Amino acid sequence: MSKDKASKPKARLPRGFRDRCGAELAAERVLLETIRRVYESYGFEPLETPAFEYTDALGKFLPDVDRPNEGVFSLKDDDDQWMSLRYDLTAPLARHVAANFQNLAKPFRRYAVGTVWRNEKPGPGRFREFTQFDADTVGSANPAADAELLMMLSDTLEALDLKRGEYIVKLNNRKLLDGVLEASGIDMSRRGIVLRAIDKLDRLGVEGVSTLLGAGRKDESGDFTKGAGLTADQAHRILAFVAPDAKDEEEHLNQIAHLVQNSATGAAGLNELEQIVKILSACGYGPDRVLFDTGVVRGLDYYTGAVFEIRDARATDQRPIVGGGRYDRLLQTLGAPSPIPAVGCSIWIDRLAASCAR
In the chain, what is the straight-line distance between the N-terminal and C-terminal CA atoms, in Å? Predict the structure, then answer.
């Protein structure tokens, strides 16, 4: 074999990436324009940020810290600064607001659409490059801002011809879980790993999450993920919160009250949830569209209050097609002059497209 033939590159895709063409791209274009139209009808304006951000502005907020480069694709610039392809569209927004805070209208309400990249283990339906469509309200602590996003998302899905009953919005509050952690004597330094374990509940089930709350878990490939190291009693209390065995909502709420005990953080979370639900109900967005679910926690560590997911009720895998929540501390971490309340959401476009095609 000649040297030229031996060195000829093979036509192959990198793992976790894909080619797309034709009808798929045309359908996505229609989908994006529909979302854009609904968001602008609510008064949100567009913002575009670059694909790269400085790595130190992203790393501490990533869920997969056990992965290479902390879950991101990174390179070192010629000035020895590490840069990473954006992991999501929220951290770039936070950086933009922190840098331009004095010149922005308050509250600042923006939407953004773009490609994001994640250095994670690929699998069926799990890609390392995909498109997200975000909307965020920055500068308002009013629960009406949280409720508005949930109403806007419901309107968006129905504009895409998803009917009530075909999608479901699940709402929770991080402060409830923090109240359980406090009442259980769990060190808050382990909060992040506990959140990441719980966020895998739909994929791994109660038994899989239980191992991640304890010593750790080995997956099918043999890779080992270190656990949170909780005691059996602490893990039981966490699982009782996220996977309750209550017969009805009243019993569920009684279980939560017992688990958070006298935690002021837990009480604040319940109060915030009640205010959001009251606004939604007054606007005609009842339990046929939005439900309370303690199993929703979201894996990212920067959420501070309400968190939510939207799922396709017809899908078998039950992966969320939309996720989001309130993140009131992130902006100050990235340089804002003081804590700035914010709430936002992200739509996974490929998952939404699959739902719309059903």
Answer: 50
Domains in the chain: ranges and CATH: 21-356 (3.30.930.10)
Query: Percent of the chain beyond pLDDT 90?
Result: 45
- Reduce the DSSP state of residue 263 to 3 states and report it: coil
CA dist 212 and 230 (Å) reads: 9
As a whole number of angstroms, the distance between CA 40 and CA 110 comes to 9
Q: Which tokens is 40 given?
A: 């602008």
**Residue whose C-alpha is closest to residue 188's, from 105, 292, 328, 301:** 301
In contact, 174 and 188? CB cutoff 8 Å: no
pLDDT of the residue at 123: 80
Instruction: List beta partners, residue 312.
Output: 167
pLDDT tens digits, 84-136? 999 999 889 988 998 898 899 999 999 999 999 998 888 877 899 999 999 99
Q: Which residue type is seen at 186?
A: I
Regarding pTM above 0.85, the answer is no
